[in-house]
Amino acid sequence: MYDAVAEGLRIHAYGGDEREAVATALSRAGLRPPERFFLRYPHELSGGQRQRVVIAGALVLEPELIVADEPVASLDASVRGEVLALLLRLRAELGLSALVVTHDLGLAWNIADRVAVMYLGRIIETGPVEDVLRAPRHPYTQALLSVLPEAPGDPVVLTGETPDPSRVPAGCRFHPRCHVLAAGGAERAGVATACRTEDLPALNGTGASQVACHWARARARALNGTGTGTAGPDSPTT
Ligand code: SF4
Fold it and tell me: Cα-atom radius of gyration of the chain, to the nearest Å?
């Protein structure tokens, strides 16, 4: 495991004490005493310990930002909690920012401050986790949340072809599968043509809640009573 953690240091031609840096990173990742893990092979570790070694490999470079892609997807429920607690503790103790990529909305709810929902390579809704997951405005986010066990109402079953990233649909990229468009909701809001023809730019994922959807934007305009299309503070940004 020593070499796995030290790899980043070597790539970046670290000039300090490599052994000490590796030991510190393993220790921060909860593998103590660290020397016990130096000569271990992956098959000698549990799934949770292997994930901690991966985290140590990221920590060893003393980053300001960690990118974790499905960090607990392969772990048992009990170990998931431990690894998530570790990530949250490290974030607080080391002042780290963490970008977690996941398909698990429950995970996002438990550990995130902000969430960005992506569809076909674009952020289509973003904001504080409470806003996006409690009151989703994009039909895709609504569909994702509707299939959670505790979700009220019937689940939204998406129709249409699974998207091909090399052939992005014209207009809103979600429109071939959008249940709001299919059920006439966009038509009633006067945006059905826009859904099929007008692309929506990617959101930058910062600031207040944002959503890339003609229908959600029309609803926000109606709620704000402006009728002008000008986005208010809580209006979707497109
Ligand atoms: S822009 Fe139109 S097609 Fe796209 S998600 Fe919104 S309602 Fe559906």
Answer: 22
- pLDDT tens for residues 27-68? 999 999 999 999 999 999 999 999 999 999 999 999 999 999
**Going by CA atoms, what residue is nearest to atom 3 of ligand 1?**
175
Residue 107's pLDDT band (cuts 50, 70, 90): confident
Q: Does residue 126 belong to any structural domain of this protein?
A: no
Q: Are residues 102 and 190 in the same domain?
A: no
Of residues 153, 151, 158, 155, the one with CA closest to residue 133 = 151
Contact residues of ligand 1, CB 6 A cut-off? 138-139, 172, 174-175, 178, 180-181, 186, 195, 213-215
pLDDT at 206 over 90: no
- Ligand 1, atom 6: nearest CA belongs to which residue? 213
Give me the CATH number covering residue 20. Answer: 3.40.50.300
Q: What is the mean predicted confidence (pLDDT) over 193-209?
A: 88
Q: What is the span of the domain harbouring residue 175?
A: 135-224
Q: Left, alpha or beta for 152 (phi > 0: left; psi -120 to 50: alpha)?
A: beta
Structure tokens at 232: 């208010």
**Same domain (yes/no): 11, 99:** yes
- Prediction pTM value: 0.84
Report strand pairing: 114-119 vs 97-101. unpaired
